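queue> holo job accepted (BIS(adenosine)-5'-tetraphosphate)
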Amino acid sequence: MFNLILFGPPGSGKGTQSQKLVEKYALVHLSTGNLLREEIANRTPLGLEAKNFIDKGQLVPDEVVIGMIDSCLEHHKKASGFLFDGFPRTSAQADALDKLLLLKKTEIALVISLEVTEEELVKRLLNRGKTSGRSDDTDEVIIHQRFAVYRNETAPIAEHYKRLRKFQSIKGEGTVEEIFNLVCQAIDKRMKSMV
Ligand code: B4P
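queue> job finished
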């Protein structure tokens, strides 16, 4: 099994790169952001709860997202690997993921972090907000709140993966294709070292 985490601040291109990566490497795409937005669109109780946090630029409570990932892993028992996009975002989520994968006798193979300046991130998110209708992408105050949450709660978990020598940073600025090529090189190298 090959399990990959795409890491990086809001708007760094995790979702964009994930779409191309799951096709090339036949991985199951698990995006907590997409799963939460589906719940919101379907007006489920979970979605209504999540919307309150997302609209304010805050993280959805750990137990909610960990539960979602747990049931997705159960649904894809025969997967040859997973691409975690936007998960884990807190140290509790990172610990839970390690435990869930251990139960399946597997582990994270690689964490790729997309590095993008805040100036570029703001431009991308406001631009997406014009067409996506995403409430968390239209207000610059909320966007900066999301960056603060990233710095305080998400960025520190990089240390966990650095200690395990599974963490690799990649410049996330350039064309989507240029970034995709760099990400693929990192994955191919890691895959070769595993055989
Ligand atoms: P997510 O859905 O994960 O989204 P994101 O971080 O905003 O964006 P991503 O990095 O995927 O950027 P994208 O490719 O779309 O999270 C949304 C919210 O859900 C969170 O704030 C949180 O509240 C909640 N949530 C999600 N997961 C959670 C968790 N685990 N725990 C708790 N809460 C959770 O790219 C952004 C834009 O840039 C797009 O418009 C794209 O077209 C553009 N772009 C991409 N690559 C580009 C490039 N190379 N050049 C120019 N533009 C580019």
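queue> The mean pLDDT is 96.
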